[in-house]
Design goal:
about 250 residues; binds 2'-O-acetyl adenosine-5-diphosphoribose; six-stranded parallel β-sheet; two-stranded antiparallel ribbon; elongated; alpha/beta; about 15% strand; Rossmann fold; SIR2/SIRT2 'Small Domain'
Length: about 250
């Protein structure tokens, strides 16, 4: 995709000059790795499933095996793909600037690309927890039952992601909001900006005087908050934005 050279230069200059960058990522940054986004009409995860069917506590209580198997499918999909140059560029940026990386993604690809201290607002696909656990839950030996149950109390293991209607992890939310207040540049990458409170962070940054850059090949709900919109795929665009000295391995 052809990227507007003047906009690219402007974005690069803003990144070069920034002191503290909040990078907020969504499913779009993993699209070029082959992970479906959520809301794409044809390939998005929700295009084939009703989110209320699968991504709520009620759904899990009603049909634990169906929901567990769907997350198992996503785990397998993510385990089979690799981070792309967009993830790698974000990790490299952190070596040159103060970066707070906040992601709505649960795929762990930022960490696999070398980013440490990733603030995961929506949890992680690979971190399971217990539903109504007894406090000393232990998985029963694998008897083929899905999801696993606690050997002591029979509680069900559930995916460690945030479902619709659930609170965000408190510390992650606090740290993300604090960074939005403190940063001087907010880089918004690959999110439709439809899901709150994550979608509110660029506005908080802007209200506190930060510049906002959106990277997304499609229009998004956050374009109106941005000083600059780069209509481009993240894996192509982000490596071009790195300050001098960071582009090579
Ligand atoms: P969405 O699927 O809503 O949006 C993905 C965005 O990525 C869209 O705006 C696409 O245009 C854009 N996109 C696609 N390919 C891209 C590329 N190569 N480079 C950059 N951008 C690209 O995903 P999110 O905004 O992440 O929450 O969705 C937010 C939350 O909604 C998810 O975390 C999930 C879902 O409900 C939970 O599961 C709690």
């Amino acid at each position: 995709m052809l990227i507007d050279a003047a906009l690219l230069a402007d974005a690069r200059q803003r990144i070069e000059a920034a002191r503290h960058i909040l990078v907020l990522t969504g499913a779009g940054i993993s699209a070029e790795s082959g992970v479906p986004t959520f809301r794409d009409a044809l390939t998005g995860l929700w295009a084939r499933f009703d989110p209320e069917e699968l991504a709520t506590e009620e759904a899990f209580r009603r049909q634990p095996q169906l929901v567990w198997d769907w997350y198992e499918h996503r785990r397998e999909l993510v385990a089979a793909v690799q981070p792309n140059p967009g993830h790698v560029a974000v990790a490299r940026l952190a070596a040159l600037r103060q970066v707070t990386l906040v992601t709505q993604n649960v795929d762990g690809l930022h960490q696999r690309a070398g980013s440490s201290d990733v603030i995961e607002l929506h949890g992680n696909l690979f971190a399971n927890k217990w539903l109504d656990g007894c406090g000393r839950c232990e998985a029963a030996p694998d008897d083929g039952g899905r999801p696993p149950r606690c050997v002591h109390c029979g509680a069900l293991m559930r995916p460690g992601v945030v479902w619709f209607g659930e609170e965000l992890p408190r510390v992650a939310r606090y740290r993300a909001e604090h960074a939005a207040e403190q940063c001087d540049l907010c880089l918004v990458v690959g999110t439709s900006g439809m899901v709150y409170p994550a979608a509110a962070l660029p506005g908080v940054a802007r209200d506190n005087g930060a510049g906002v850059i959106v990277i997304n090949p499609q229009p998004s709900a956050l374009d109106a908050t941005a000083d600059l919109v780069l209509q481009a795929p993240a894996g192509q665009c982000l490596p071009m934005l790195l300050p001098v000295g960071a582009a090579s391995a």
